[in-house]
Amino acid sequence: MYRKFATSCGWTWQVVELTGSEAGGVKHAVVAVSNAGSTASGGDGGGGGGVGYGDDGGNGGDDGEGDGDGSGIYGTLLPESGVHRVQRVPATEAQGRVHTSTAAVVILPQADEVDVRIRDEHLRIETMRASGAGGQHVNVTDSAVRITHLPTGLVVSCQNERSQHQNRAAALKVLRARLYDLEMQKRAQEMDAQRSALISSADRSERIRTYNFPQGRVTDHRIHLTVHDLSSVLEGGEGLRRLMGALRSAKEEEALRQLVEQEEGGSA
User: Fold this and answer.
1) Topology adopted by domain 120-185
2) Nearest-5° Cα angle at 248, 242 to 254
3) pLDDT tens-digit series, residues 4-61
4) How far apart are CA 53 and CA 56, in angstroms?
5) What's the whole-model pTM score?
6) Closest Cα to residue 162, out of 196, 138, 180, 146?
7) CA distance 44 to 83
8) Domain extents for the chain?
9) Does the keyword RNA-binding apply (predicted)?
10) What is the DSSP letter of 112?
11) Which of 98, 152, 185, 195 is the most exposed place for a label (fewest CB within 10 A)?
């Protein structure tokens, strides 16, 4: 459903992780969705749950291209987060009984590329004479440089270049790379923690939408809207766009209502 919707929007769909179920469905999936302007992602799991993430930038993708209304990928897909309930008659059901299953969908923004900025006051720079082979120049000038990044304790030394200026520049380059790696590890850990928390929350929360196959309908319980075009929703077509549009309108109306209440409360 989301893959076809993403394709119709001109987005790139990349499966990052996929775990199948014994019944041939999807137990867990992680998908990255992107375009030239911004990225976000939606993941869905057939039997167990799913996770999505994207590198939408700091404000959650509202500056990117969405599904034609100017919203970003993250902003467009975020309302899909929650528990989706499926009611259908499995192929293995001999008596035609309707079975109910759920899938947890989580939408996450992916962290921006880290912009490593090194402040001078955070550095302790020491110079010394280089050691080792290299002729007279090695032993005569204080060309070797050792830089300590005080906040993290990282230490980088360089003596391979002929001048102190060159060694300083080379050491700073190495330090910046190490700080970048350190920050990326930190962000990855934070993202994993956020993802785990959202999955746990989704597993405990009430359903947001029901897909009823026998009756061919989809009901979004947050806005009490039923679309009697299940196939269009599952194909990522007009049915799904109608649900997304109605959710967006309801959110805007609620935001406007809260704004009016705040203004009325302030003037009272």
Assistant:
1) Double Stranded RNA Binding Domain (3.30.160)
2) 135
3) 999 999 999 988 888 888 877 888 888 889 886 555 555 544 444 443 433 333 333 3
4) 9
5) 0.63
6) 138
7) 10
8) 2-114+188-267, 120-185
9) no
10) P
11) 185
